[in-house]
Amino acid sequence: MDDPGFFDEGALVAVLTAQPLDRLLDYKAPEGGCFRGAFVEVPLGPRKVLGVVWGPGRGDYDRSKIRSVIRVLDVAPMRAEMQGFLTRAADYTLTPMSAMLRLATRAPGLGDPPSMRKIYRLGDKTPDRMTEARTRVLEVLRDYGGLAFTLKELAEMAGVTSSVVKGLAKLGAVREEDSPRDLPFPHLDPDLPGKSLTEDQQAGADALRAAIRSERYGTTLLKGVTGSGKTEVYLEAVAETLRMGRQALVLLPEIALTAEFLTRVEARFGARPAEWHSGATMTERRRIWRMVGQGDAQLVVGARSTLFLPFQNLGLIIVDEEHDTSYKQEDGVLYNARDMAVLRAAICGARVVLASATPSLESWANAEAGKYDRLELTARFGAAVLPEMRAIDMRAEQMPAASWISPSLRRAVTDRLEKGEQSLLFINRRGYAPVTLCRACGQQIGCDHCDARMVEHRFLKRLMCHQCGETKPIPETCPSCGAEGRLAPVGPGIERLAEEAEAAFPEAKIAVLSSDMFGSARALKAKIEEIAEGDADIVIGTQLVAKGHNFPNLTLVGVIDADLGLQGSDLRAAERTFQLMRQVAGRAGRAERPGTALLQSFQPEHPVIRAILSGDEAGFWKAEAAERQAAGVPPFGRMAGIILSGSDAGQVFDTGNILARNDMVLRQIGAQVFGPAPAPIARIRGRHRVRLLVKAPKGAALQEAISRWIAPLRLKGDLRLSVDIDPQSFY
Ligand code: ADP
Ligand code: ZN
Q1: Rounded to an integer, what distance in angstroms lies between the CA atom of residue 699 and that of residue 638?
Q2: How far is the CA of 260 from the centre of ligand 1 (A)?
Q3: Taken in order 107, 110, 114, 119, is the CA torsion positive or negative?
Q4: From the CA atom positions of the chain, what is the Rg in Å?
Q5: Which atom in ligand 1 lies closest to the alpha carbon of residue 548?
Q6: pTM for the full model?
Q7: Ligand 1: residues within 6 Å at CB?
Q8: Domains in the chain and their CATH numbers?
Q9: pLDDT in tens, 529-557
């Protein structure tokens, strides 16, 4: 019998394409035949599209009408385990296979031969004369924010001739650059001497090395306070993986983190790894994609979508800061990279390491239940000790109007300034003020397209909607009542806090770190490095600074509003606040000098604030777990969110009601439906939004029931439905 993985010329093959068709298409294998998994170009109507030979054809279509595969692309075929991974990930997240294939092929020109070529990205000049074609080119470049394309890619995507692009390049509206070739990545040497590890670290590294040598699937929760050397330990796991000739993947939550990490990798292995992120050019992406597929990239570092690269022999996946919410993709395919990492590893016999100082309750519960191995690093490396944490009771502080830095916090900062040490003031709100209020009529300025308030950004000199990104100039007169000069900012954002700090500490050098204040990730990285080298007395930051940066001279963290996260009705509000506060506090005292964290709070007796201060982590997790268990919510029960949206509010609600009434299939598995209810943000970009929530017992076949439940639904007009399995946010 023929190798079932190979199809002779003319044999029927089923091809998966990235087109939204929801089924495989039959084609005839091309001249020379093809392997299962081959990446191919196939005709579809008048077009040629990319596809993957998924298996034997079904043959239920008129054979005389079946066309042939045009060509087999010169890249490594998709491995059976990748096919399996995509299929299971699609089933889990209820995503069409075509969308999964798009995730797995996010690099253009996969089949092109390698060559030196010119690439094009957005320039800084605006042409005097705009044509429709020119506008389309610039729109494509803006839509892909920062990415670069080859001439052919760009012209095709914009639907223009290449002379339009070249014309724009001459005018400086598009920049022409030379791109790197498709070279293999430099060799990483696992046998260079690493740092000598502490006893704790050594034990952790040994356990991971043994696990990796077994070449069997398993997940390890590597818990350790910030600065305990988790990174050092898992780099040893990477080394062992490379020695075994397998590939390793390190997922990081935030692109700004990678600069420091890449330097550490280079120090440990003598070369830099492949780096997959949204700022990479299309050409870099193509290079990484191909090299990963042929085994010429040993280690890849990147954000969540790195998980869908075509690894040939993946032996290790590290998910650093595994509790981070950015691992959940919140639009398009709704998946959680942490969970998908476990799935992928289980399929290909790899080890997963989930690293965090403050694990998610999900991972904590899996470790408690014995599903995950557990490794713990309890001490900070070297002389560094954990910061002392205290609350500032805001009810007892004398606060002048429109100020947020309490006298106690002010004294602490002054003390650090005198000693030449750094302080961090943390506030989790971008912009100048969250609310702009008219003092004449009491109206707050809202977004025209969303049920959200516009946030003033003085730095950008505009009001911005944090939901849809819409901006408008700050008006002189109230849009509701027309009163002039009566608009006033209410509440603090990071820019307003910076203003207060500048007035309070006029001699200090102040650095403001907020993601929207930097034109590019590169500029942000540069700023972070400057700060780490001591080039700021006071750092004012949002969530961004909570994530793993090392600021050795920082000894004080002041949290402006520790109560902020506790107000939401979100199921994870307590967990998130606990994690965030402990992460932020962990920024202090990373080197020899001890640190202090001060939390401004109006409710210092709140159980979550008390747990944060006392550092009784086990106590906090146990209490939180017990509460969730009693409520039957994750991780002790299952949930799925259904979001219906459309421009006609009545239609959206009616459809929600139809779903809620026909819940038979859900009741059969013991699940319950809640809603429909207007989503907390009931309108985004002019679309009305309604949510339903499905709760099911832990072992229930939730996905299967949901797909049967929604299958009969016919979505009229611009109505859209999306299913969010294991929702993380409920907006
Ligand atoms: P974590 O990932 O747990 O936050 P890191 O691995 O970043 O901790 O370690 C914190 C700091 O201590 C880093 O600068 C790291 O290089 C240093 N460090 C940790 N362990 C060692 C060691 N065994 N030898 C030398 N330096 C170490
Ligand atoms: Zn908006």
Answers
A1: 8
A2: 12
A3: negative
A4: 27
A5: 4
A6: 0.80
A7: 195, 197-198, 201, 224, 226-232, 381, 550
A8: 6-80 (3.40.1440), 116-180 (1.10.10.10), 199-377 (3.40.50.300), 388-429+492-624 (3.40.50.300), 637-725 (3.30.70.600)
A9: 888 888 899 999 887 776 656 788 888 98
